[in-house]
Every structure is written in structure tokens, then in C-alpha cells.
Amino acid sequence: MINIDGHLKVNQHLHWAPDLKPISEIEPGSTVQIEIPDSSTLQIRENFTTEELKNVDGSLLDAAVGPIYVKGSEPGDVLEVSIEKLDVASWGWTMVSWDFGFLKHRFRDRLIIWGIGKKEATPRGNFLKGVRIPVSPFLGIIGTAPSTGKHGMIPPQYFGGNMDNRLLGQGSKIYLPVSVNGALLSIADPHAAQGDGEICGTAIETMATASLKIGLIKNSPISAPRAFSRDSGLGPVIVAMGISPDLHIACSSAVEGMIEELKTYGFTDEEAYALCSVTGNLRISEVVDEPNYVVSMLVPKEIARQRID
Q1: How many other C-beta atoms lie within 10 A of the C-beta of residue 30?
Q2: What is the pLDDT of residue 234?
Q3: Contact assessment for residue 60 and residue 14, using Cβ atoms and an 8 Å cutoff
Q4: Total domain count for the chain?
Q5: Residue 164 DSSP SS3
Q6: What would the pLDDT profile of 219-257 be if each residue is shown by its tens digit?
């Protein structure tokens, strides 16, 4: 197993680009264990108060661990990233911000510190007193390098990045397009729990140790990330994501992605379109990482497999 300490600045980057220097090179099929900092990049401490948020440097937020060069990967391929294990820290935080989130300029700044147990997270202090949140860890940021340009960390894009999709947790398989030789995979922003949309702009942010098995699928281009995951209400699901600053386009892209995925199970375009309507679930996974939305189309895996079983 390859171990990477993502708490070291030398193993972090603060933008997406096709020419970043890899911190590690691996063979397809390798398992990598990564220590991942929280989205404040270790700036927020367990004993912090709301007043201390003014000391946080916004330019250092969402530093990603990577990139990791996957040998043999080329444009047109797909990375298959299996999250085999995801262990989060014993505490985390949520921030309500005046100038970030879906309802900007309505609520004053506030920092909530959470204690994180094996099954539940509970707030420390009187704010949200008595609330218990089921712990369901996932990776907020996972992506490959873009084909061109230098891009900020916050908006998710066709190559993945800051998708904040709560379906990308332990046991999931995430499929990412390869746009450059080596793919250049990066990971960041662990969450202990989050609702769809991440409305106030943060989840229960925390640190984590992730064990990822990184596979390679040759000559199988996709235009946006996809996944196999488990939804609490639906069981195992196939996930196709659409990412766009236009919510309608994001929805359309998610549906088109699912149609393409269902065709691999033996359905025609028209059958897949109808199946999306009668059994699919279209949801907004992320709405705050401006300017892009993330929309997910979910179809239960057991229904998709009825054509081939």
C-alpha cells in the first residue's frame, strides 16, 4: 500500500491545472492510503470560536492532496476510484457565513464545533443543542486534471473536483474522465455528514484517512463523473452527474449521462429515458459552489440489472 501524508504542504495544491507536478506515481490497481486535511486546510482548530474565523486565510481553503499520476492513463480513459475505507476525525466544524452559501447576506457568521462518534455527530455548545446527526462520511473533492487552463478549487467541473456529493462515501466507486496523460488524481474536503445541496456552504467538515483503490478503464470516455453508490432509501444505485452554471443544463447532462450508462446494461436510448422517469431520482447534490451546480440522477442498480441478469 502507498501512503501519502496530505497534511504536508508539499503534497497539497490550491488550483487545478494539467501541468501540476505529481507527488506520487502508481500502477493501475494500486491501493493508496491518504491523510486528508479538512477544507480549512488545518486552519480551524477544535477550540476555535466564531470570532477566530477572521484569522482564517480564504486563499488556503480546499487544498487538495495530489496530484497522483496513474501510469498508462491517457485522454479518453476513465479512472475508477473505489473508496474502500474512510475514517474521519473525532471532531469537525460547520460554518455559517455572511457572504457564502445559498442564502448569502442573511445570516451572520457562526462556527459550530461538532463531536464526531462512530454513529452520530453532536454539536458542542447551545447552538443546535440536543441535535444528533447520523455520521455518513464522504469525500467532497475528488477529481482529475483539466485538459487546459488553470482553475480555482471551489467550482466543480467536468473533471470532478469540489462536487460535494454525499453519495461519494465508503463503498462507492467513482468514475472520472481522464483528460491528460497520467490523469493526475487529487482528493480533499472530507465530510462527516451533509444534506443534498450543502445549503449553508459547509457540511460537517473534518479530517480523514482514506484508503482508495485506483483502477483504469481504457478507451471509455465520459463527459462528467459517474458513480456506483448506496443511497439510504434506495439501496445500491447508479449515479450520473451533470455539472453546469445552468441548472437546466446540469439536469439534462445528468439524464443524458444516465441514458448512456443504462445503454451499457442493454437498454435502448428510449427505454433508458423512460426508465429514468419511472424509477430515477433527480436531485441537486450541490448548489453553493458558484458558479456551478451538481445534479445527480440515481437509478437503483437492481432495476438496471434486470435486463442482463
Answers
A1: 17
A2: 85
A3: yes
A4: 2
A5: coil
A6: 999 999 999 999 878 899 999 999 999 999 999 999 999
